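Help wanted!
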Amino acid sequence: MQLHFLGTGAGMPSKERNTSALMVKLLDEVSEMWLFDCGEATQHQILHTSLKPRKVTKIFITHLHGDHIFGLPGFLSSRSFQGGDEPLTIFGPSGLQQWIEQTLALSKTHLTYPLRFVEVQEGIIYEDAHFTIHAKELRHVVPCYGYRIEQKDLPGELLIDKAQALGVPKGPLLGQLKNGHDIVLENGDVVLAKDVVAPAKKGFTLSVLGDTKYCEEAIQLSMGADIIVHEATFDGTTTDLAASYGHATNVEAAKVAQQAGAHYLLLNHLSARFLPYDLPQFLAEAQGIFPNTFLTADQAVYTWQHNKLF
Amino acid sequence: MQLHFLGTGAGMPSKERNTSALMVKLLDEVSEMWLFDCGEATQHQILHTSLKPRKVTKIFITHLHGDHIFGLPGFLSSRSFQGGDEPLTIFGPSGLQQWIEQTLALSKTHLTYPLRFVEVQEGIIYEDAHFTIHAKELRHVVPCYGYRIEQKDLPGELLIDKAQALGVPKGPLLGQLKNGHDIVLENGDVVLAKDVVAPAKKGFTLSVLGDTKYCEEAIQLSMGADIIVHEATFDGTTTDLAASYGHATNVEAAKVAQQAGAHYLLLNHLSARFLPYDLPQFLAEAQGIFPNTFLTADQAVYTWQHNKLF
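Answered by r_m:
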């Protein structure tokens, strides 16, 4: 799993940070990519990467402020131009579907692929053999959701050497063991799956929060997460101001990660007020509370491997 | 007057050309800027210039395809963030106002300035002391307008030396002469305005066409224009294809300029199929018909001065 940050700024685009978009690459897991929020010019940011819009199968929108959605019509349209024909599902708050449909109709945009919508409410919004996704409403000035992506545990590897040592022949019996079924050999010996299959590998948990002030809901949604992506529009000098705008500070994001018992915290949605030379201090303040904190930047890529973030 | 091309590509943005937007700078004339079309990421293109969104007082939309309008919500919103408080008027086809209003409402975007709409139909759509603007429907696959901006003639300069030689004293009589009124001096001498005021300076005529196939209407709208901005999505090898998509070729654009008796032709809205090394040939084909043809590029600026384009 990789996190490719396409836009990490708040409100207006700046030369340094575009408005919100995060591509979660699940190519090894399910050969898909999932996009979280889609600010204006997200497709332009993608032009400077090797990401393929047609591989994006799901888009999750946290809330309907312009800096999180104004890139959607262009992205949907270009995915079509580029020959995307796989279905695409958009998860988002009430009102999004109508706006997208109005916008596509007005601009006479005919998509080459089926577009589906899921209106997000609290609870499980998606589940398949590999993932469960929960949504929870956060506290912003408009309805805004955070998403918790839980990868299901992966079946352990078949230990072929061990199986063969116990007399299991090459062939379909190996497959049965791998799928967790105990077997009986021709000579009557029983081979237990647990003896020849490594323990299940724990899946990851990723919590992508939308805009929010510091709140209990952010902690609840992120409990025990491997990675939290949390907004940090303000810093500790303007905590009251942050809350009044429905935003959080670097310090508050770190508290959420600490209280949720998370492993890693990535701060995004930074205000353009913070200049490059402010950032070391900005990061240090958060790390004072939660050491495993990182600042995101446009086009930064983080890789999750062996239960660590690189 | 300056033409600052912000986006000169067709359909999808590419690394080389963004979708359509042209800023017409009238700072010397009326201290305003007028924007023609506003593809996605027009505000991002502006970030790399010294152009100030709050100086934009009028936006003209040629048609409602996404590559001409998807940057509007973000531009309007950022103009507000940046403290714009001067009224802004959007001229565009039917349906645009409703979409903008729906989009601003959905995203809870509250503008700090009055936003007005003019639904464009053929004929004079704007007139003041300095300019007359005509709209004419072109031939595209959706309703699409071209705009003809005529600057009114500028009053000639007062030739002070000549006036003083004829005995006109400093003071209000000079102002009367400048305004075209003949005067009588204290000694009874008559001074004619035409003798001490230079001839009126001819205003410019600029024709900005939207997407269109080669058509009579483009020629009519551009008759005698100083500058025509014409799309050239295709080249002469695909003339039939161009027409079937409602687009024009480089050669057809040159024919429009020739038949309209224009002075300069600027080609924009180029397909990303044309690579940098194709462009000399692409330009030469048009210049074979209309020598004063230029290719536009993103961030190219043309200045109109002394009846010439630089």
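OP: Thanks! One thing I noticed: Chain A has a mean pLDDT of 96.
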